Amino acid sequence: MTAPDPASLRAHLLAAVPSATASAARVLAELLDDPAGAAQLTVTDLAARTGTSEATVVRTARSLGFAGYPQLRLALAASGPPAEPAALLTGSPEDADDLAGVVARLAALESEAVHATARTLDLDALDAAARAVHAARLTDCYGIGTSGLLAADFDHKAVRVGLTTRLRTEGHAALVSSETLHPGDVALVVSHSGTTPDVVAAARRARERGATVVAVTSAAGAALATTADHVLLATGRETAYRAGATASRAGATLVLDSLYVAVAQRLGEAATGTLRRTYRAVEEPRPRRRTP
User: Fold this and answer.
1) How far apart are CA 219 and CA 20, in angstroms?
2) Which residues belong to any copy of the SIS domain (predicted)?
């Protein structure tokens, strides 16, 4: 794993949180809350501040791609302050004093998620995923709960440019669908945590069937990411009231929209023509039903 450059360090720290152990998560939280301060701490000091061990701090640094903690300290020192106003990002939206504060903090968190995802998105993986979807006979789209809404949005757009897709937003349905895939097909799997059992099982079965698995997730080290052929990471910092990981959802929307546009560009005029026809289909007046 290559160490992140200082400009994208915060995004990599965010991406590491969902799959981190409890002790590593405390280290990551300290680095995210005060990167400049953490850069001044020795490995012993950081371990004491986070209630962990020196070994945990070193393992966390290495899991991020650094040779050790000294290299992580240098990256923290060079990363500079976050682009967003610190006051908006240090508190949770639910802690704001008034509705304007809630909106401002939510806007900052959503913006942070989108920009962090854009900085860290693996463009080679995105290109490979787009090539796979473009060439596929069939693309299955899997997601449960909030992730299912994201999968449904991609499915709707994909159909509008002429792709053949199947949407599955229930675990057993995804498992059944994965059993019918063939080599050359694609399973596009959306899961914030990357650990939803039925979704992970469907991804594994799809790969066993010879399909290409594309994962959209916030957890780089989770089971879904290790199963997939191509991993597209979405990042975002979540807070207590944010059911369904809505900050990361903003990042995942960027990822899926980027994939959709990349595929549409490969389709070229065929996509444009299909879009025109589908627009006409919904815009043309339809006869009204007569009420009895």
Assistant:
1) 9
2) 129-269
